[in-house]
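Slide 14.
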Amino acid sequence: MKLPLLPPLVALCVGTIAFAESPRSAAPELAPLVQHVLSHRDGQAPWSVDFDALGGDRTRLPIGVFDSGIGGLTVMEAILSLDAFNNQTLQPGADGVPDFAGERFIYFGDQANMPYGNYPRKDRELFLRELIVKDAVFLLGRRYHAGGELKSDKPPVKTIVIACNTATAFGIEDIRAALRAWQLELPVIGVVEAGARAVNESLPATGRAGTIAVLATVGTCDSGAYPRAIGRAGGLAGKPLPAIIQQGSVGLAGALEGNPAFVSAALKGADRNPAYAGPAVANEAAPLDPSLVPVYGFDSGGLLGDAANPATWQLNSAANYARYEVATLLEKYRRAGGGAPISTLVLGCTHYPIARTELAAALRRLRDYAAPDGARPYRDLIGEAIEFVNPAEFTAKELFRELARGRLRAARESGAAPVLERAFVSVPNARWNGARLNADGTFDTDYKYGRVPGAPVAEDVLCVPLREAGAVLNSLSGLAPALPRVWSALGRQ
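Slide 15: predicted structure.
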């Protein structure tokens, strides 16, 4: 059973439809990659695994964390700082000791192929799913490039954390299916499942629940992963299912990262950003509605263009992106007939916890917003107190539980802190036959979205230490204040 879709970027999910789907099996198109790994068990070929290195006691191996880019480092930060359990009894309750004391971590961001959310809309979902399995293969394998040379001294990982909502939505079942084919028993934790369980904890056991709002990327929302996962978790717990609304954001993550396609610190006032791809009157993917200018409540200091002409406006601050997303979500909920007030906002992208203050302020403003005629169109749609769900924190908790359940926790030396040992990102391989790159070294758009699955030896990207990717480090510097432990660890690598 399917309900009619609401206007673009929002879907309302109620009842059993949220969890009726069964887990997806691996696609036949991914079989060449799965077989390739089985056929190269020494780990010497591109995208292969050294199975011998995964034998024996795995407790000493590091934990792998990956994302489509650097946004997953917010999950890494949550993991490094978690103190929610007693390390001796393994029971809930802080004990003043980091929960992952003694553990080592390896991070990978597939920066060359990001953003993942664009592939499904360009009819490349199967290729995206292959990319996601390759992310796992990199963490399980030993190969990488550094200083222009091939290296093979990276340890494999004992657990995989998918610190990316889109990758979890489209690829977690494929990774699990591949591991079964390779006869490797490793826990795989995804942020969507952890976030859904967090939402379930907040749902009342009886009675009517408030509406759950999910703010995520367009790709994650299109996948329906959060409504399914929330419905599944609530259904298993026997709780009444809430209504779920979604808002797919085009540019908030990019704005937080300082991506020049969404914000430019060098521009102001009447200036225009020629690379701009964010919300605008003429942007069908993220339309800015001139009739809603008072509702948006943009800060003029974070706008480019003619102040008197909304048709020229370009958002130029993370705060204005937050106001746009919240206003768009609430207006479409209102136009759809509304319902129970929003009680919970799921931060369904790894960047969004950084904008929590701005999102909370936008919600408060709209709850109190009065139209010129005195009407308050959003007051009854927003609860007095909104609970924010950050899947990163719950992913960290889920990781602790899985390590304890599988007896995979590292032996903790006295005072040993968790360590982000190595961080890698992918970069386009200019020497790969057929690869087409832009002047700035990124993939040509037609090439990027023209690829298909089924070429497991393709090495059109190289996985390199993050410290060698200057452009990525520049983007990451804007997130540094929100990532003190991660930033400190990167400085030591």
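Speaker note: The longest strand covers residues 419-428.
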